[in-house]
């Protein structure tokens, strides 16, 4: 019963938040700070509705002063609400072109200035990635990427896609990892307190002086740091329970 009530409230919240977000986007279309506002619009009401308790250690992320590529692990569709509170100022996201067809959310996503990539068209995808390099270098804007490319459903980190790291090297900006504990296969949405989630941002990884030849080592370095962080966060939760 509680699960059904939550899904009903979340459906209403998704529609209302989407409509308000579209109004924000229409008032200031493609403003790179729209994502931060809309992220909080989705996240803050959703946490009590879902019964999630999120503890975030992300001061370094929120106070980072220059453009960077933010990479995060991706577990489920609920990441929209979990990570929404963590989006820094002047940050846009890369998403699939098909997202724009989702009612309310898709139009909001586009108006927020996020980058839509047509993965089925290599030429258009390459052009979009070149645009992001210019954004990082000249527009004082960071880019958020779910670096696995798809949801891992709580089964551990999937192999990382290269795009985020190629962008960072081309633009000469750091990689800033953000990790959340494993929660998607532990949620109990029929319980009053359905999930406890820990979030932590790591120290930026410099790309200064790197070339595309350094790409495999950079990906491995970032993935190892995120694996260790997620393992540590999961252990913290287990020790508390």
Overview of the structural elements:
By secondary structure, this protein is α/β, with parallel strands linked by helices. It has 8 helices and 7 strands, in the order H-H-E-H-E-H-E-H-E-H-E-H-E-E-H. The radius of gyration is 18 Å and the shape is globular. Strands 1-7-6-2-5-3-4 form a 7-stranded mixed sheet, with helices on both faces. The two termini are 25 Å apart. The mean pLDDT is 90.
Give the helix proportion (percent range): 40-55%
The low-confidence runs, each spanning 5 or more residues with pLDDT under 50, are none
Q: Please list the strands of the largest sheet in the order they lie side by side.
A: 1-7-6-2-5-3-4
Structural class: alpha/beta
Question: Quick one: how many beta strands?
Answer: 7
